[in-house]
User: Fold these one by one.
Assistant:
Number 1:
Amino acid sequence: MNDVRELLDRAAEGAGQPAFSARTVYAKAARIRRRRRAAASAAVLVVVAAGAFTLPRTGGDEDPAPASVASAGPSASPSASASAADREGRLAALLPPDVGEIQEVSLLALIKGATPEQARTDRLGPLDGQYAFRRDGGVGYLVLTLEDREAVERKTGRPADPDEDLCVRVGQEPSRTDCEREALPGGRALTTWRDTMDVGGDDSVGWGPELAGRLVQPDGSQFLVRSSTGFEGTGTQGPLLPEPPLSRAQLKELLTGPEVQPKG
């Protein structure tokens, strides 16, 4: 089981509707991508003859308006908006300017139309959240979540283990592509890998490739992160980025820095 793909399932726990399960979003992503690729292959023949290529856009000729939890349902309170703006600013301060414009969003609100209450999640880490990265006309996403020991035990039956090598395939679980594991000072272990998101199923959403990571800490807690090139289909905010919004080196620096750790 890919723990990173559980991030949105955790966000959906309070929704009360099975339709909000991230497992469904991911499990059905490949078929639409295959349909898009087949259509694109046919279109290329026409485009080559015409001598031009136009990237299809969703929602008209203008760039889609930024969306957030507040834009997906009833207006958020001023304190909630200020908190989101604070997280955006602190995250942006940790990254180089060329990563693009950063805005906190709710993927459940974008893709499934969840209300702010349904999309609400508990935040253990000060930068936990789902962020859109807009750059060069494309939109990618960063999802960062801290799970404490109790949360990991509820999900897996045991705490996170820094000695576990995630790059070694176990049983029938999918292998991790371009997987790198690094033992860090203080008994921590950081694993990053690439995910093509080519999973079976059928849905109105197709996810692009992404970088994923997990930082396991000696107290049995873990940080989970996705750096996604974006998605196509229902709720899309723009075309996929050519590469994940944060590189492997940037993911490592973010996860191992003090800014993501709870205070006190």
Number 2:
Amino acid sequence: MSKVSAGLILVTLLIGLCSFVSKKEKPTLFLIGDSTVKTGRGDGSNGQWGWGSFIGDYFNPQHIDVQNKALGGTSSRTFYNNPKLWQQVLDSIRPGDYVMMQFGHNDGSPIVDTLRARGTIKGNGDAYQEVKNPLLGQNEMVYSYGYYLRLFVKNIQDKGATAVICSPIPRNRWEGDKVIQSDYAIWAKEAAEQAGAFFIPLQDLVIDDYEKRGKEEVGKLFFGPKDHTHTIKAGAEVNASLIADYLAKNPAIGLKKYLKK
């Protein structure tokens, strides 16, 4: 083989290698959670918006995909156990991906009822309770809120992806000029620390913002005077901006490099 032919082969191989590298799939940031992350179809058709509909605006779409897989009405338990929810996300996760989760608003519901049977045991312990689930028509082992979060993290890490737990955003409930805090934020942080996941203190970030605005102004960010949970577009945008700002200030999480400059 001539030196010229060998050189051409080498150049061809290098071009092919570069082409392969350039076509490497970009990572995906999956969002899972309840209606405060995604309300309805995520298009605001009912006037309510979750922050997951706007967090993608802060990322460079050429470098990372953002997929909002949250579903309103779910708890950590029902999202994890529904094969059409978590299992479908899990099957899509690839090494290098990220999963950001925020549950808690529905975990305080009854553990057993004929409506949704979505409650979890309070806390981050390993306790469990065997119940007869009337919706499934069979017995079910129910665990703590933090336990389910740790299950998510284990699944994510086994896939070679990065797990990020957010404490749930606060409800629009006040005691004087202070927003009422939730114990679920404490349990979410404990679960993240125990499982080795990253943690975003979203409750604290939002409360700090709300208390600067004041009760009257914060009320305008929610769907109505009787709705203490669901935000309108402006409220969801506030929450999304706080998450993006936290990611920018905490590069160890790994998502800062994908934010728009």
Number 3:
Amino acid sequence: MTPDELLDVFHRRIRLPDADTIPGWKVEHIGLVHRSYVEGPEGAGFVETPRGLGDNPDAVIAGELAFFRERGLPFEWKTYAYDEPADLGERLVRAGFTQEDPETLILGEVDRILQRPSALPSKVVLREADGPDDFHRIAVLMDTLWNNGLERIEERLSAEARMFPERLSVFLVEDGLRREGPVVSAAWIRFHPGTGFASLWGGGTLPEWRRQGLYSSLLVHRARLAKERGYEFLRVDASEDSRPILQKLGLYGVTTTTPYEWTPETR
């Protein structure tokens, strides 16, 4: 399939039906807005508008701000480069959102990845995460690399694996000589039933272990699992570090996405 064909399938199967919302979050479609959120002390929200914002975009934006302000929840408005109106990002910034770093939406067919050879160094072991200790070790790695919250990562992975085990598989790579040592790389895959898509997450690797094929091996390993479960397509929201590797392995950059974050003043 061409990049444009892949994007069309993704838009119809994933974005329009909101098929990739976080398991356990409340999902609401209010007019043109796709909203998902979870309440509580660690609550948060997420908004997309894959059908555009109609004739009064600023009113729609104001409505979402009012909704989340009333609940005291931070939320992310995720935009795609082809979203309407074309100046959506500018409107969000004027409304008080903070623009975060853009990512590339990477899509591809599972079979293309499986055509690629991959091999791990003999000194490491790739295995599926097995319980709380492994989730903690993975969270330590991710927080070390990206400073995105040790407890947050650990709690979300643990809760998701417990409540939706059929939709999440988590893998780690460790030094075969130091089983109790640090996780050197880790990644997970989420399955979206009924869509043909599985999404890839994580992939962080300790600096001293990079350029040894760990990222590629984790990618192929997850693609093989997706194939076994009958999934046709892979999706990644890729940073600039990951994008070249994924494209080299046969996936396509089809558009860019940019998150805009809003946090209530009392948070």
Number 4:
Amino acid sequence: MKKLNPAYFRVPVIFFIILGVMEFFIDSGDTPAFVKYPMVSVFMFVFLFLLIAIEITVTAINNITYQMLTAEEKVKVDEAASASIQDREWYQKLMKKLTRTEPIENEAGLLLHHDYDGIKELDNNLPPWWVYLFYGSILFSAIYLVRFEIMDGDNQEMELKKELAQAKIDVAEYMKTAPDLMDEKTVSLLTDPAELAEGGTLYTTNCAACHRADGGGQIGPNLTDENWILGGGIKEIFHTITNGGRDGKGMIAWKGTLKPKEIQKVASYILSLKGSNPADAKAAEGEVWVEEAAQ
């Protein structure tokens, strides 16, 4: 017997629909739910097994039932199963509701009393789907007129500008707490002892060779006094460490070695060395740095 949707089509479709629904409702981040949660894989395996078992059972029942039919009943079942979609009763009823077409034998009653060079016109009803679509377009135009012409609603250009403005605000807020997107505009001074200790470790590993472990300066300048060559605030020091010092004679850029959060910790640690007055410190270089807010 012919089926509209064979099992080899029906089973995968149902399986992937259920899998898609589970992926939609289970919050698993960037990892698929069936990978992150093994129980989901187990459930889908059992579900697939049950689908196949149901299909096998239903097919066996249909075959047994078919064999119990008389010869005439088998002929009727085979004819109904092999009929095309257009010949099926439910399809014909659906098309009747959608189009309201008249049978061809009623065509004589639909003819209008005029013709053009032998061409005659039928007075058929408009298809309901077309009529409802027409009414819907009228309703839409009325709502559109009130919303955008009378109530002065935002057009597409204004909506885009508002969305871009909000996006800039959201990005700025996100960058304040996103360590890997931090820059000299969003960096802030750290005062937590644990973070300063981490900054001290990074400083000892990467900076002590040029600035001494106590910050007194060697090849590089003294970091403990009030004089700075390229600025002595957290933003300026962060920028200098990230992008390097003066061209040709300054230190290298560390942005390829250290992450923004690590540079923030180093810069904060350097500022904590101010006024420590190490022995045999290098002479001051640059100018005395004063925060703009304090000027």
